[in-house]
Structure formats: structure tokens, C-alpha cells
Amino acid sequence: ASRVAGGAVAKAILDKMGIDVIAYTIESNGIKLDKPVTYEMAKANYRKNEINCPDLKLAEVMRDDVLRIKELGETAGGVVECIVKGAPAGLGEPVFDKLNAMLAHGICSIGAIKGLEFGAGFEVARLLGSKCNDSAYVDPETGKVRFKTNNAGGILGGISTWEEIRMRCAVKPT
After folding, report:
1. For 48-74, what is each residue's pLDDT tens digit?
2. Beta bridge partners of 137
3. Residue closest to 142 by CA, chosen among 93, 99, 88, 84
4. Cα(120)–Cα(151) distance, rounded to whole angstroms?
5. What pLDDT does 2 receive?
6. Statement: residue 4 has pLDDT above 90
7. DSSP code of 88?
8. Extended strands (E) in the chain
9. Is the pLDDT of residue 7 over 90?
10. CB under 8 Å to 98, separation ≥6 — which residues?
11. Which residues, in sequence order, are bridge partners of residue 83?
């Protein structure tokens, strides 16, 4: 109850700052989305079903599978993705209070969370530096430094970059 209450207060503050945080299911019991989810797609659809999946057809398949597992007296795990849209650049610091470390601390304090990745996550172990590193450029429309890719998940060196902060959490079966 305290997490829900604290979250409601935090959401109200973030809304006033123009920061939106959404989370949704991308995998349930091995049934997973096979396409990337844009913020716009997630925002439009993620609250339209019980499983909170932005792909409405796949959500039905996930729901039916969860109900089947429930009938067996079992539970299933899954993966939740979270997007933070509108976070300003410069949150966090490069040494002791890295933004990703602070987020990981909060997220991993949730009992069922057993894995966490930011941006490309574990995929970065299979990439060369030239493909993994997010190349910066100056956006001619806004004058802001932006990045051509977001493999770092919106956080470089422990500091937010203006890009969407993206995290995925592995949730174990209860």
C-alpha cells in the first residue's frame, strides 16, 4: 500500500514536470512480443486489457495462457518493460549516484524482480563498440544533443541523456 501511495504522489509530481512513466507486459510465460514497442503504441494500448500488453491480440493469447496455468494450480513469470518519456538530460551522476544504479535499487527491491536491463541490455555483450555506442548529434530543430540510437536506454555514464529511459524487468512466478 505504501508503494502505491508513494507512486501516486510521484506520478502527480512527474506529470507537472512533463515526465511520463509507463510500464507494460512484453512477455508472459514465454509468449512475447516480436516487435519493438514505441512509446506511442504503448501509451495508446497498454491499459486496454487485463495483462497490460500494448499488443491487443497478443494480450488475449497471454491472458488465455495465464488462465490455463491458473487452472493447473501454477503461476507464470514474465517481462515488464518501462519507458520514462520526457526526463531531462543531466539526472544522476557518473560515480556514486548513477541514475541507472538508483533505478535498479528501487526496481530490484520489488520481491519478484530477478533481472533488469537498460536499453539493449544483455544484447550489448554481442555487439561491437561501433554498433553498440550511441552516436551523438545536435538536433537542428531543438538545438539539443540527441542520439542516433538508444542502446544505452537513455542513460550514459550514469546520467540521463534526453532520450527515453527504457528498462525491462524479469518477474519470477510466485
Report:
1. 999 999 999 999 999 999 999 999 999
2. 146
3. 88
4. 5
5. 86
6. no
7. P
8. 20-28, 31-32, 78-85, 113-118, 136-138, 145-147, 155-156, 159-160, 165-171
9. no
10. 92, 155, 157, 158, 159
11. 22, 166
Q: Which three cell numbers stand for residue 31?
A: 509468449
Q: Which three cell numbers stand for residue 42?
A: 504503448
Cell numbers 491458473 label which residue? 70
C-alpha cell at 153: 536506454
Q: What is the mean pLDDT of residues 4-11?
A: 90
- The sign one gets for the Cα dihedral 142, 148, 152, 153 is positive
| Model confidence pLDDT, tens digit, residues 110-164 | 999 999 999 999 999 999 999 999 999 999 999 988 999 999 999 999 999 989 9
Alpha helices (H) along 21-160: 39-45, 56-71, 99-108, 129-132
Q: What sign does the CA torsion over 76, 102, 18, 4 have?
A: positive
φ, ψ of residue 19 to 5 degrees: the values are -105, 130
* C-beta pairs of 13-17 under 8 Å, 24+ apart in sequence: 17/86
**CA separation for the pair 137, 36 (Å, rounded):** 23
3-state secondary structure of 126: helix
Distance CA 55, CA 161 (A): 28
What are the two backbone dihedrals, phi and then psi, of residue 150, each rounded to the nearest 5 degrees?
A: -135, 45
Residue 41's pLDDT band (cuts 50, 70, 90) = very high
